[in-house]
Amino acid sequence: MKDYIQVDEWKIIEEGFKPEYNTISESIFSLGNGRMGQRANFEEAYSGETLSGNYVAGVYYPDKTRVGWWKNGYPEYFAKVINAANWIGINIALGDEQLDLAKCEVSAFRRELNMKEGYLKRTFRAKTARGAEVEVEAIRFCSIVDDETGAIKYTITPLNYSGPLIVTPFINGDVVNKDSNYDEKFWDEAEKESWHDGGYIQLRTKKTGFEVATGQKFTITQNNAPVDATVERVEKDKYVASSVTLQAVVGQPIAITKFAANISSQNYPVEALSEVLKTTLKAISLKGFEKMLSEQAAAWEQKWLHNDIIIEGDASAQQGIRFNIFQLNQTYTGEDDRLNIGPKGFTGEKYGGSTYWDTEAYCVPFYLATADQKVTRNLLLYRYKQLGKAIENAQLLGFKNGAALYPMVTMDGAECHNEWEITFEEIHRNGAIAHAIFDYVRYTGDEKYLADYGLEVLIAIARFWSQRVNWSDDKQQYVMLGVTGPNEYENNVNNNWYTNTIACWCMQYAMDVAEKVKATDPAKYDALVNKVNFKEKETTRFRDIIEKMYFPFDEKLAVFLQQDGYLDKDQTLVKDIPASERPLNQKWSWDRILRSCYIKQADVLQGIYFFEDRYDIDTIRRNYDFYEPRTVHESSLSPCVHAVIAAKLGDEARAYEFYLRTSRLDLDDYNNDTEDGCHITSMAGTWMAVVQGFGGMRVRHGKLSFNPFLPAKWKSFSFHIGFRGTLLNIRMGKEGVQIKNLSGNELTVTIYGKDQVVKANNELLVEA
Ligand code: BGC
Q1: Is residue 681 lining ligand 1, measured as CB closer than 6 Å?
Q2: What value does the mean pLDDT take over residues 182-200?
Q3: For 603-620, how does the pLDDT look when each residue is reduced to its tens digit (9 = 90+)?
Q4: Mind listing the pLDDT tens digit for each residue in 283-313?
Q5: Backbone angles phi, psi at 484, to 5 degrees
Q6: Would you call 85 helix, strand, or coil by DSSP?
Q7: Hey, whose CA ends up nearest to atom 1 of ligand 1?
Q8: How many CB atoms lie within 10 A of CB 207?
Q9: Is any atom of ligand 1 closer than 6 Å to the C-beta of 538?
Q10: In whole angstroms, what is the distance from residue 239 CA to residue 432 CA?
Q11: Of the residues 489, 635, 636, 676, which should be mutated to test ligand 1's pocket, given the most ligand atoms within 8 Å of the CB?
Q12: Given the DSSP bridges, would you call strands 254-264 and 703-706 parallel, antiparallel or unpaired?
């Protein structure tokens, strides 16, 4: 764990130059706007430890999978959102000395991520080897208003140096991915052009043929006046730059304002890219940096209005939750149903920027409550559009009759993980995709979605489960063999309770939805039945499986068993493992982990979290008391589920402990891996821990309910929730729960089990 980020309610601050933490800070201070994003690399040259990262959403490369022994069914490639052209670059030379913090004496350094207004500011004072001292202030952002663009204002003031100062703003597409499987470069140059005040390169991805035009346009002032300087244009392979030679004068600031854009063939025909780029650059440079920045602040203000969580009395927790919400909003805006949420968003290469079950299981609740419902709908449509590929995936594995197995890792619908043993058998992901449909409809009431899209996906998923189980003569029950549950510290197990549970739930839900659509929209139902050749007799098998499914259970302990044979394992608890042996995934052999009882992340408890209404409180408590002491939480997705269950059980102290673990996971680098990127999808889990955990928020029978408690350290906490056209502010303080209805329609909500009517534009207080 690190402790170098300063606490501030609205800012993330790093004070002092810490090259040893630079790659961590590059992740934490990342910027994004849903369409593009980048790590917090420096504008000027830096020869120290750095992971350069610029990403354009949806532009990926299928990197050939690397495995030792190839087997049928392995995915051929691992798709990656790739490192794209670096558009932030501004090299600075003082005479013939390059400004490079790794080679300077740095007497002051501050990096500040302003979450309220959505920009990154860096200031430093540095002295070169020859003694030239400068002060720099660099402000930059990825615009959420003009979402293909970004802007930088880089001001350098010589403190003791007069002489030639060469400023070289550039675009560099000669970039690599650190995680490239075969050290390949993923881009070819298609074209480029440079002007005296800018230029662009257009790159084409190998294999996939995406093209992205990345360009810059800049202005330079000295002592606040335009400069008349010589410009030398530089063009190299995948690189354009303009070198501007100025005469530096002590105390006179030189300001470079750089406008940049990424225009992708995902959104325009290839032949139009350069023209669109030029028009975009012209438009934003005319708008100007200050106006862009003020529009950015106004747009972020709107976002915060709908999804801020305010914690009184604990600045560190406040900073943590805002950081999580900020990063989620930087990653996904829900404008485009071809995009999704990679576990690291735009903050690093790990997980390839691809889509995992994380989206449906963890992110959907956040976006449902904090954004327009079309945002979650687009996440569902993403999977709907990939149904054909999911059916192909299942066919490749031998399934028939339109059964779909959604990929565990995907970019375009095809399975593309590169870790067969663990990832492949995590077929439970199909369940999360069905559950997200349920969650969406439960929250929004948009039942039309079921007839239009949902049922088709549900039938295909139900078909998969009905073929994946087999009848055990021995047990006289259906069983599901050879799976990996959410707990990846067990592979190829039989009868994972969670998987068996969600499989049956999926089949039942598919049948319920089919009944509903048949009754409410018979024409659509008939059309769909024809399209997918759905025979009602298929439901006979679904029912038979649901009725005769085997669920491992231990009578003595009265707990659901994670899988067959779980109790044969040595049951030494996590608290008894020496601290020096944790985290297990860094200290133990894989063999030892697989044989142990230790649980990477919520597994049985994930099922209890999803389907809590099926279980009485004693059952939930017994399972929580049994599994929590065996869980090592070595996935960032784990503590949030435990927090919500602990809160439900009234274990406020543990709920708070789990919350802290997720909320500052990246800021404090708990898992020693933030340098790879931030844990974006688990950030939605942090939100869950507050809203569903401390706030006790649920949706039942079309109604919102809350059961809040106040963590002991806090004076109050409050959050906004959008629900079916009504915006509410819920504040939990010592005096009780205050609900403000910020909309023009009345809403009935359940507080501590009792219905309360909150009139339009009104508020009420319920004592705790
Ligand atoms: C977790 C998975 C998750 C993946 C991506 C893994 O460590 O165990 O459940 O889908 O990370 O976040």
Answers
A1: yes
A2: 96
A3: 999 999 999 999 999 999
A4: 999 999 999 999 999 999 999 998 999 999 9
A5: -120, 130
A6: coil
A7: 635
A8: 12
A9: no
A10: 44
A11: 635
A12: unpaired
Q: Is the CB of 351 under 6 A from ligand 1?
A: yes
Can you read off the two tokens belonging to residue 413? 């619908």
Let me know if 488 is a catalytic residue. yes
**Who contacts 647 (Cβ-Cβ below 8 Å, separation ≥6)?**
655, 689, 692, 693, 694, 696, 709
Which pTM was predicted? 0.96
As a whole number of angstroms, the distance between CA 113 and CA 153 comes to 15
pLDDT of 582 over the 90 cut: yes
Q: In the block, which residue shows the tokens 């389907």?
A: 611
| Cβ atoms of residues 527 and 461 within 8 Å | no
How far apart CA 683 and CA 639 sit, in angstroms, is 11
pLDDT at 254: 98
Choose among 588, 605, 625: nearest CA to 489: 588
Does any ligand 1 atom lie closer than 6 A to the CB of residue 356?
yes
Identified catalytic residue from 112, 133, 456, 488: 488
Run of H or E residues at 644: helix 638-648
Distance 329 CA to ligand 1 centre (A): 20
How, if at all, do strands 187-195 and 163-172 pair? unpaired
Q: What percent of the chain has pLDDT over 90?
A: 93
Cα–Cα distance list, 735 to 709, 753, 768 (Å) = 11, 18, 7
Q: What is the mean pLDDT of the chain?
A: 96
What the block records as the tokens of 513 is 């939805």
Tell me, what amino acid is at 630? R
